[in-house]
Write a structure and sequence with these properties.
The structure is a single chain. With 118 residues, this protein is an all-alpha fold. The chain has a domain at 58-112: NADH:ubiquinone/plastoquinone oxidoreductase, chain 3 (Methane Monooxygenase Hydroxylase, Chain G, domain 1, Up-down Bundle), CATH 1.20.58.1610. The protein is built from four helices and no strands.
Length: 118
């Protein structure tokens, strides 16, 4: 029993050693000639104008997260729709509850103003 843990410990030790060697080689072999052009912020090949550290509104991130959330949850509807003819009443009720939960989340986000693009 202890032999199995020794193998896991050996693999863990070897993985940390490999990580350390890789980071050490990266540090030794990297170019060490920074200049103002290399330290400049780069954004899609377009020269930056003004301050490069601009704060974005958190509302944009919330809008994107809500989109991803509802997009991923909508993927769960596809297998259900494909197998609709083979499903029983229990699966139909379960999917109706799932859709009501999605609708409740959408109404909550709408009432909180998270879907308004300002």
């Amino acid at each position: 029993m202890l032999h199995g843990y020794a193998v896991v410990g050996l693999y863990l030790l070897m993985s940390f050693a490999l990580l350390g060697v890789t980071l050490l080689l990266w540090w030794l072999l990297r170019p060490k000639k920074p200049n103002p052009l290399k330290l400049e912020a780069y954004e899609c090949g377009v020269q930056t104008v003004g301050d490069t550290w601009v704060q974005f509104r958190a509302q944009y991130y919330i809008f994107a997260l809500i989109f991803v959330l509802f997009d991923v949850e909508a993927v769960f509807l596809f297998p259900w729709a494909v197998a609709y003819n083979q499903l029983g009443l229990y699966a139909v009720i379960e999917m109706a509850l799932f859709l009501l939960l999605l609708l409740g989340g959408l109404l909550y986000a709408w009432r909180k103003g998270a879907l308004e693009w300002v």
